[in-house]
Fold these 2 entries.
Entry 1:
Amino acid sequence: MRIKNFSLNSDDQVVKKIAGEVLRAFHIEIVDNDFDFDDFQIFNDVAGEKVSTRLIVENKFGTQVFKTAGIVRSDERHGAEVHRLIKKNLYTILTRDLKLRGVPYGIMHGVRPTKIIHRWLRNNFGVTSYGVIDRDKISRRLRAEYLTSYEKSLLLTEVALRQIPILNSSGEKKISVYVGIPFCVTRCLYCSFPSNILPNEKKIAEFMKVLSRDIDAAAAEIQRYGFQVQNIYIGGGTPTSLPANFFHELLEKVTTKFYNSSVEEFTVECGRADTIDDEKIDAMKKFHVSRVCVNPQTMQDKTLERIGRRHTSAQVVTAFEKLRRAGDWQINMDLILGLPGEKFHDVMDSLQKILELDPDDVTLHALALKRGSKLQTQLADEISKLEDFELPSDEEVRRMADAAEKILRGKNFSPYYLYRQGYISGAIENIGYCKRGAECIYNVQIMDERQIILGVGAAASTKVPDNSAMRLKTSFHAKDLSTYLRDVERYIDNRTKILAEVFARD
């Protein structure tokens, strides 16, 4: 839908944000010409427990007014309920009155939707007097309050319930450690992550020195508060893009400072097949790595070249087989649905080739075009040859995801974690499937945000749940490499401060 003039009767930034989320979900655009409506005006009114929404639209056929309203739930925070109903009311008018086609997740636009279900369960919603969880009751509420599709309500419920044993394996003093290595050998066309093309050895050595200081400081906090490290995750970027000597140094430092008998999972993102060699595999074996990620994103050589990867699908197979022969570790693999130029049959072929390798975990990502990616820039540039970057439609991406789910379930892979992003193709989700017992503990813990995550390295985040205040305290290391190197002491102090706010109280 295309509109010329848009107005919203609120200056509240949250209201603006949630209205924008709904409009984007329906691809409603503001344009100067060739529009469907001259005016598109949204009015929201909150009177006690009632939230009313009115939409006035005007075009050459005249003016139309649509209204709907809802009542806030008493068992939820009032402010959050008001915002949910504003979003739900607008979505309802667009689908019911303007006949726009709904999207799979309805008004559920948050990154971590399963957190909603876990909160309900903690408040005993959906739990019978005998302690049995009523799946149907949970999925019905998702459909009623968030307007999710039937299929997505069942999927969310399934994933949330599967996560419970992993979440219950933690505790106030059990933590995860994330180590951020901000380097890649090339930058992928779609990438918006804070990564840098691998610099010269002098710059890498400077980074390693600063990272070592960061690790030492984090280890001191672990000792100070008596934390137990449950998971170590080295990500990026592509950690294996480091030269072998620096990679060995990294693993040795991380293992010395964080690894002990309490560690249940030690993951390294190997990512790019062209960064995996025998020397790095040997280092991972030596330093107790238990899980590795090989992320081809596609097994189509033409797409790998298009998105800026300097390896082939054959190299992915070689790297995977080397890892499988070398260690008794679990191997994750990622695919991206909706890559430029790819069709349904390309994704099915890539999935089949990956499954022939017999990984333990397969994650399906839907392409999300974010600010900062080369692909978004080129798509937005009128000079670009858009046909070179043709993207599958939302319907095609959903068809890819549905078919991939059926295939994975048929191979005894089950979904165990998911998250969503803005601007995601198909308005679907990123979702991890794994064989029984092969769940990545870190993936579940980081998504639910109830376990302490100590972040070290460039672009790393530290998250500390403050249970007494019912809030999450966060600190963020700089994404920019130069800033991180210059100001590491400030970021260490920020991390120390939020830990002390929660654990060093009188």
Entry 2:
Amino acid sequence: MKQLPIAARIYVSLVVLAGGVCLGLGLLQSSFANPFLLASLIVLSSVCASMKVSLPLTVSGSTLSVSYAVDFTALLLLGAEDASLVAAISALSQSVFHQRERNAPHRIVFSMATLVLTIHAAGATLRLLGMPSSDVPTVGLVAPLIGGAIVYFLVNTGLVAGAIALSTRDNVATVWHTNFLYSSPSYFVGACVAAAAAWFMTSAGYCLAALLFAPVYLTFRTCKIYLGRIEDEQRHVKQTSDLHLATIEALARAIDAKDQTTQSHIRRVQYYAVGLAQAIGLPPNAVQGIKTAALLHDIGKLAVPEHILSKPGPLTQEEFQKIRIHPKVGAEIIASVPFPYPVAPLILSHHERWDGKGYPNNLSGTNIPIGARILTIVDYYDAVTTERPYHKAMSHDSAVALLKHEAGRALDPALAQTFIELLPTMMAELAAMPEEGQWPAPAASQLDDNTAGLLTVTSGRSAYENIALAHREIYALTRSRRRWAPAWA
């Protein structure tokens, strides 16, 4: 909970408070007229809550649960007061059982509160539209059923979309459209199943009504198998993508290694950026885009002369203008690569400032992509804590003080504060990780004489260290030639 932005914390707290009040008042007003039916629906809803399928086509990794039909049935048969208890226990079961990763307590309580509020909103809609009694012809159910399903869908998905949008600082309408609009048909199908089950229970008895859930279960199994195949295909695509990204990463780090002052810069920036993106709850696809952009954010420096990058002093205005082109150059290079997530816009904007005084487009505030704002913060911190030709490395405390000073000026203030809070943990984790480039040496039997000789020369140094050493020699040789060149040369 502490890792969420303040607005998201307030929103989650208000939803949980409202859900708790509704549940408490509902239980106080309930007469529990049919305790056997209530207990049966609680058990059935809890069992169905574990029957959920992951939806690999969504950005947020959403799931679809069969328990919605049971919750709606409880609403039709028992009213919102008792049905809210069924829904709350169903949400608890869905959040706790059969989970690959343990859900945070605030997520569990928020899910329960969301369903309680949804049940009460849908129940109010049914009453407003004149929900008929069980002895009225079925046609009288149509308007209330459609209205209740629409409200149930909008309130349930809207509350969740609001939490995601505030956590990621994205537009709530975009989040809702991307992650939840596709699921609207399932709510109407579930409402129809619930209406049929409610009619069977009041007309034919509970035993026959239970048969209605057989086709629901078969549908669930069919969807699970089908989506499982899609997930397998996506896993294969991801493995291929990871292989390509690993190749790009090796080349990017080789480029980074040629500058002895910024060795391991990419590694640290990438680690900090991913940690910050995950901490604020960005979806996996966005995190992967930030990870890739962190890897390639300085690739545009290939267009900047080496003597400017290595100049041990302040740059002239002309030299600084040449430095300023590297975000555009980097974005142009990456724009031709069909990444399945935004990368080029993050590279283009990673030198923009919160106050609008950055470059190349003078963007300000939330007009800067959130991934670029993350890159700006972590790149800023790593730059000032690293020895560079033009400045000495700052201590951690001095760098943190500078981050606080620049919050609201160069840096997103909320993200900067979150990053400062996460820094001690991330620094400890990064320090515990092995140094990059430490690969096991191949067996001598696998090498020819020439290769063995090369490894003898480079033994004890990583590949990146050898690249850095070669460029230091080239740079030293170039400076030596300039020093001893004749006046007429």
